[in-house]
Amino acid sequence: MTFLETIFARLQGAANTPVIGEVRDGRIVSFTGGELLAMIGQARRFLGARGLKRGDRCALLAPNSVGWAALDLAMIAEGLIVVPLDARQVGGEIASMIEDSTPALICASDAALAAGTLANLKAPPPVAYFEAIFAGGASSASRSPAPPYHHADHDAVTIIYTSGTSGEPKGVVLNAGNVTFMLGRTNARLDQLMGSRADPDRVFQYAPFCFGAARILLFTSLSRNSFLALSTDLTKLADELKIAGPNYFVNVPLFLERVRRKVEESIRKRGGWAAAAFARAQRAYVHRHSGATVSFADSVCLSLANAVISPAIRKSIGPSLKALICGSAPLAIETQLFYMMLRIPVLQVYGLTETTGICTMDDPQHVEPGRVGPAVPGIEMTIAETGEILVRGPNVFPGYWQRPAETAKALEGGWFHTGDQGEVDATGNWRITGRLKNLLVLNSGHNVAPEPLEHELVARLPEAQQVVLLGNRRSFLAALVTAAGSNGAANGLNDARVRAALEEINAELPHYKQIRAFHIVAEPFSAENGLLTTMGKIKRDAVAERFAREIEQLYQKKPA
For the domain bounded by 3-251, which CATH number is listed? Predict the structure, then answer.
């Protein structure tokens, strides 16, 4: 069975059981498998009436919702190719993706959302809105829709555009074989995490479905015994989490970092013995993980934190959590250890859109902080002489949309060239060390991967949100440091604090890796100011352009 046939079979078997819902107004609005199938049937009839042909592209522009899921599945069931678009991107960026993919139809949640995109298109394709697509309510649709189109493995089902952290986003074509293979692997890993149980998994989703890993979670959840609760307001995630009570959900590092900072700040403000004991317990936990000897007093603080403080924090984050799943960008090891100390495992996943979102997944029974787990069964991974990670297997995409030269380069030699650098230990557990395109080459000829140093500086500066290392074709390294919040001075981030942290770091580094200058940026990088992708990745080219004057001034000064 294809992944789509598996999902349809599961929804039919759960005709009277809630399978998906939206968190709204302090409660979850649920839909049964039968109701979701009815919505899919409505959307299929609407699409069929538009005269669309198999293989036509259809763009989907909307925030996460049950309607989004129904329309996505309906498009695939009709043999169409779904082009999911990020509703949080600006209209010009979305317009360029539409012009590249040339969809026969745009399906948007509402006219206001589509307006900015349509204004940037010279010849916009037809647009249909959810209100018209699902007119009449789910009850008006047949509960026994026609079987979905049976895809061959090579049939394209979606074109997902890369985040474009540098350069123009490319359309990644994924086929039915890619998705069917991946769902088999994600279901197996979740079975491992959840064990043998009759109750459905409770899953929460806030990451936009337009991204590969988020989409795989949607399809996985709908193919197994689970209930998927969708966030509808990112400003109320803490409240929504309490309502959803998930066993697991997919995260980006930025979210986990924010939760960690909020918890630590709350405990510091409380003061007293609890704040002192928790801070000491954190240090002791990190030391114990590194193999260092922990004093009796530190052990007492750690035991006290585990018995009294950690349970309260776990309850506030999610009392039913079996694990947090994290991917899309490197996670600071200190953050992973923070959650592990709270007895909330963070399972890391590594992959790219081109690998159907996943290459490696942490084994729930063997999590090593700082590593991202072994390659999932059926996938091969190796390291080229350049240090680049190469991947091949049924998860690797067939190519970029209308970019044969870039496809040939990416798949040279029968392996997908990830652009990532990494290392693997004797047990097959992988560590990602950086991106080749981010590598800084100093005038001295030394190569420096920026990510480890950036993570180290953030770890030593709780007042900082992000660090971007500079120095390509320069004589020394410098850094941009953003404040954690809208006012750096109010949060305690100042020259003296950064200088002290750099002195600590530089003392442990060879001369060419030492960071000799810095500039503090008062406002954190964000998707709203155009310096982060919506999944929290830094747009390094945009940062370099925005702060070109400040960067030049750093290199005009005599380094420390």
Answer: 3.40.50.12780
